[in-house]
User: What shape does this take?
Amino acid sequence: MLFASPLIMHLEVFAYPFIFVSLFFEVFLLVTFFSSPARAQRDRKASTKTPYIAMIVPCFNEETTIRGTVDSLLALTYPKDRLSIVLVNDGSTDNTKEIMDTFAGNPQIQILHKENGGKHSAINAGIEMSPQAEFVGCLDADSFVAPDALREIISCFDNPRVAAATPAMSVYKPETLLERMQNAEFIFGIALRHIVAAVNGLYVTPGPFSLYRVSVLKEIGGFRFGHQAEDMEMALRIQRHGYEIDNAPRARVFAKSPQTVRGLIKQRTRWTSGFLRNVSYDYRDMVGNVRYGALGIMILPLGFIAVAGGILMFFLGLFMSGRQILSTILVTSGVPLSYTLSPRSLEIFYFPISTMLILSFVVTGGILMFMVLGKRVSQTPGTLVQGMLAYLFLFPFIAPFWLLRSFADVTTGHKRSWR
Assistant: This one.
């Protein structure tokens, strides 16, 4: 048999568990979506409370976006005397400093220029400048918040066990196919965070507009380097200390996304390798640990499975495509197919692949369904159809590159720069 080598047959067999795990997880998400905790999140009203909040904007070379970010914070529907905005210039080498200084006369805004020390050091410096704050938020300098976002997210803290809350994040004004693909992925993430938060399974508090209870930060310590994934390291540390992370599905924030495939792969390599390093090195005791509930016994293990499954399915897809092309060439060249595949190999290979294809369609349909749910629960404006199509035709071909790159970086100990 020319094509049905033992190695490939084993790869085909191993592909099925990954597909069934994906189906199981989608069923879990769907059931949890209709559970009482998830419904309570969706029914929760925007808060009328006005605790003192400090929004920290760490900046490194953000001259093109920092003004829009600050303007969106100033437009928040929250009492001006209960909200301070702390701009931290982390050693920028462009015109970020000069643009920041134009806000110096605003009584709501504090400005700090410091040497470059990394995002975690910039956030910690901002916290130190806000001793009166009950809650601190972090907003990346390339993100923009909806006016009612703060009212929505502060309501999460009515539960005293909640130490952090996450927003609903989508792409700012997506125009290209790549941006629309990322927007569809982000909206799928809205549904995912909303549902997983209902079982306290969140392991990352995204940089765009996550909010923290200051008393908890003082108890567990400030932000750390976290393998270039500070928001993930902090979220895992919060969970390890027994606190909860909630989600506000209508606290909308819009982030600028990478505009090139190369930039996207670099960003996602940092995210994925940050997950692998944080969970494998510093928080491996949480994996499979029933003490941490759904996070320990399901969410973190599934993160590793997703990386391994994505890589395996990529190579299996390459093999299947190459095999089909070669078979077509041989047949059209006048070589009978029977010379390349025996009846037994046809029987073994084609039936499972047909089943695999059907199951793959079911999994894909589930992802698209959750995108629709994410858009609906977050009330995110704009159309999603083009983004869904871009996701279907682009994401499967791009994602394997950052999965492979991340796996290689972690196994070899290679460290990449932030930008």
